[in-house]
Amino acid sequence: QGDRVTVYTLAEREPVPLSILHHPYCVTFSFYAGEGGEEVVLCDASLLEEQLREGAATVGVNRHGEVCQIAKLGGVPVDAVVLLNCVQVALGKVKEISAFVAKRLEEDARRRDKGGVIASLLSSENDRVS
């Protein structure tokens, strides 16, 4: 009918797992003016380090190396080469995070699929008569 929602408890129904196919992750870089004019860059700074930074940039990348966004809102100017290095570091971090999330999702799927029931239901194999 479309006007009613039924919420089931965990005892009544097994939750449907979240499907993540193409997901970017964001990595934040903090910029500081070092001694002698050199730039100091920190990846994912702590709260205290964030309060002391002079600029920041957030790079959103997916595991395939596609840059989805770069946000640099004000702060100290940053050289383009430094920003490109930040993108490369972000890609490495995103590959680590993606592998971690994929492993945990796989473990969760195995935990949910006790006895292989779900795998057999989702199989694309059909009984064929020759």
Automatic annotation (TrEMBL):
Q: Pinpoint the Exoribonuclease phosphorolytic domain residues.
A: 24-91
* Gene Ontology terms describing biological process: exonucleolytic trimming to generate mature 3'-end of 5.8S rRNA from tricistronic rRNA transcript (SSU-rRNA, 5.8S rRNA, LSU-rRNA); nuclear mRNA surveillance; nuclear polyadenylation-dependent rRNA catabolic process; rRNA catabolic process; TRAMP-dependent tRNA surveillance pathway; U1 snRNA 3'-end processing; U4 snRNA 3'-end processing; U5 snRNA 3'-end processing
UniProt keyword annotations, A-Z? Cytoplasm
Q: Which InterPro entries match?
A: ExoRNase_PH_dom2 (IPR015847), ExoRNase_PH_dom2_sf (IPR036345), Exosome_comp_Rrp42_subfam (IPR050590), PNPase/RNase_PH_dom_sf (IPR027408)
Q: Which GO terms describe its cellular component?
A: cytoplasmic exosome (RNase complex); nuclear exosome (RNase complex)
One example GO MF annotation: mRNA 3'-UTR AU-rich region binding
The similarity annotation says: Belongs to the RNase PH family.
Name of this protein: Exosome complex component RRP45
Q: Which organism is it from?
A: Lachnellula cervina
Which classification does the entry list for the species? Eukaryota, Fungi, Dikarya, Ascomycota, Pezizomycotina
